[in-house]
């Protein structure tokens, strides 16, 4: 299981607003929700699943702004692929929360 964080930025759109592009990209994730888990954040999107599936999904997501008129697209991708144990978004958050509670005592 891998966790991918990505930011897709459409350029050459004639406007500084990107909300419509983000919504269009997010629809691709919704169509894959039976295969991946995802979380939209104010600055990026985090996706959890099998690495091959995630990479194919990122490729589809990268194309969406072009399909909606962007002349250039910049995609930044970070992959966390831990193989010694299963790592999920939830497990990572619980681990940090546990350490914060422990430090408070």
From TrEMBL:
Q: InterPro entries in the record, alphabetically?
A: MTH1187/YkoF-like, Thiamine_BP, UPF0045_domain
**Mind telling me which Pfam families this protein's record contains?**
Thiamine_BP
Which ranges carry the Thiamine-binding protein domain?
Answer: 4-97
Q: Record's Gene3D superfamilies? A: 3.30.70.930
Q: What family is it from?
A: Belongs to the UPF0045 family.
Q: What is this protein called?
A: MTH1187 family thiamine-binding protein
Organism annotation: Cohnella soli
């Amino acid at each position: 299981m891998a966790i991918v964080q990505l930011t897709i930025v459409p350029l050459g759109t004639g406007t500084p607003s990107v909300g419509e592009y983000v919504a269009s990209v997010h629809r691709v994730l919704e169509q894959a929700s039976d295969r991946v888990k995802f979380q939209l954040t104010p600055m990026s999107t985090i996706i959890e699943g099998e690495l091959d599936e995630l990479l194919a999904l990122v490729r589809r997501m990268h194309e969406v702004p072009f399909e909606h008129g962007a002349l250039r697209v910049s995609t930044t991708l970070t992959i966390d692929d831990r193989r010694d144990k299963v790592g999920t978004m939830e497990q990572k958050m619980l681990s940090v929360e546990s350490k914060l509670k422990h430090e408070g005592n």
